[in-house]
């Protein structure tokens, strides 16, 4: 039996050694957990503030981006209006130039027609003057030799 007890004792000793090792391991694990929690507390407070500040910064950047986008869209709209206005003004200018040329041509045509009509009236008046019967020139009793000679010719 002494032999059996000797065989059992190493097993009990092994069990005790295992229990001691397990207890130490558990104590080390607990110590590590406590150290980790303490370290996280120390580090997490500044990081929490940093996260809050970064979130605020991101929100401000998004607001700024939205404002810039709005201003950019407004500028694009104003450029489009300016381009449309310039195009409209050019079109109006072209039409005005064409109308002015047409008015000048019509004015020249009217002036020419008026001139032609005036010349025609003048010719008609001249013709009427030539066609109006005139009394024959009165011959005087005394005729000069130059007048009779001119009449013969």
TrEMBL record:
Biased composition (Polar residues): 85-94, 140-153
One GO cellular component, as annotated: BLOC-1 complex
Record's signal peptide: none
Region annotation Disordered: where it falls in the sequence: 85-153
Bias-annotated ranges (Basic and acidic residues): 104-131
Protein name: Pallidin-like
